[in-house]
Design goal:
The chain is an alpha/beta fold and 366 residues long. Helix content is 27%, strand content 20%.
């Protein structure tokens, strides 16, 4: 039987994995996590030691408005606005719940089960009824680094979403998610935020990049009933086989770079795309946007659920990342413990954070 291998930017081959029926590779969470940790830390130690030493010390409208879906590359339209924990139209304001002990407007840091969460609360969301976006960073990163690349906190204020950005342990650059323990903790905290801020359960969304993208795919398989729509980037983790399949269809926006040096596009990105398309028996897909640097394709299930796949040819300035980067990001790469900027070198034809937020606005629960 043929076997796939993950190639890295220096030409090494590793993590040999047998394909499943139909040739779609359900790249496992542990394999993905281990691959990213080994390859990224090897680069850091061997090539980026000087950076490691240097860095280790080192108004818009709010309310129930949805993003302008006509302003980006997808051309989709705006949509309006539940988790099981709240009603469509809350009658009372936000109330603290457990470790989520402050429901005032502004930026908060909540420590829940040993994980610190950066939570941004727009002024309009203290009365309840807003949406929420769970935005998860990748290996070596932090919640602040994630926001420097997605701009999700500012977008949340603009469009009426509480934004949750958890921080993996230990601190950067050694930060890494452990699925077996961290996934349940993060989902529990998401539920607390939903109750505390009386979130509209039709507007619960998730995005993440790299390890965060992998967590997003795992949450798709584990908690599909909770989410209105999801936007993983440069990740994998839901094989659509046996018990590893979503309980329901969820609108998806998936982004992956063709030059990605850490999460290979050919052996990881395309198989994950194929798994979604085959698992939900989607059509052949229609190109809805693109130019010489990116292509956006929309697949649709018989139930009308959209899956949009963006592949881009951009690259970061770091040879350790190459295409493992956020399009449109302005990340300066200067946060404490940060090894390198995760922004794609400009010019880019779209901005990932904006596209994710527009997709969420266009796809609440019915």
């Amino acid at each position: 039987m043929a076997r796939y291998q993950v190639s890295t930017s220096d030409g090494d081959m590793g993590n040999e994995v047998a394909p499943v029926r139909g040739g779609v590779w359900p790249f496992s969470d542990l394999d993905a996590k281990q691959m990213l940790r080994i390859r990224s830390m090897r680069f850091a130690l061997v090539f980026l030691a000087p950076w490691l030493v240097a860095c280790s010390g080192g108004t818009a409208d709010t309310g129930d408005a949805s993003p302008d879906a006509n302003a980006g590359v997808d051309g989709s339209s705006d949509s309006g606005s539940k988790t099981d924990a709240t009603s469509d139209a809350p009658t009372d304001g936000a109330m603290p719940q457990g470790c989520v002990d402050d429901t005032s407007a502004g930026d908060h840091h909540f420590t829940c089960d040993g994980i610190v969460y950066d939570v941004s609360v727009p002024p309009a969301c203290t009365a309840g009824g807003c949406g929420v976006v769970l935005d998860v960073h990748g290996l070596t990163m932090s919640g602040k680094m994630e926001d420097n690349n997605t701009n999700m906190r500012a977008l949340g204020v603009q469009y009426g979403y509480v934004v949750i950005q958890p921080n993996a342990n230990p601190a950067p650059p050694q930060s890494s998610w452990t699925p077996a323990t961290d996934d349940d903790k993060i989902f529990k905290t998401l539920q607390l935020v939903v109750v505390a801020f009386k979130i509209d359960a039709k507007k619960i969304h998730m995005t993440g990049f790299s390890q965060g993208g992998m967590m997003t795919f795992r949450f798709l398989c584990k908690h599909a009933d909770t989410f209105a729509s999801m936007a993983p980037g440069a990740g994998t983790g839901c094989s659509f086989t046996t018990n590893d399949t979503p309980s329901k269809e969820v609108p998806l926006l998936y982004m992956h770079g063709t030059k990605d040096a850490l999460v290979n596009f050919t052996t990881v990105g395309l198989p994950q795309r194929n798994a979604v398309v085959l698992g939900w028996k989607m059509d052949a897909g229609t190109k809805i946007a693109g130019d010489t640097t990116f292509t956006r394709t929309r697949y649709t299930s018989p139930n009308g659920t959209p899956f949009e796949f963006i592949q881009h040819d951009y690259a970061a300035s770091s040879f350790a990342l190459v295409g493992h980067c956020y399009p449109g990001s302005t990340d300066p790469g200067t946060e404490k413990g940060q090894l390198f900027s995760f922004r794609c070198v400009s010019p880019n034809s779209f901005t990932w954070g904006d596209e994710a937020m527009k997709f969420f606005g266009a796809h609440p629960k019915p």
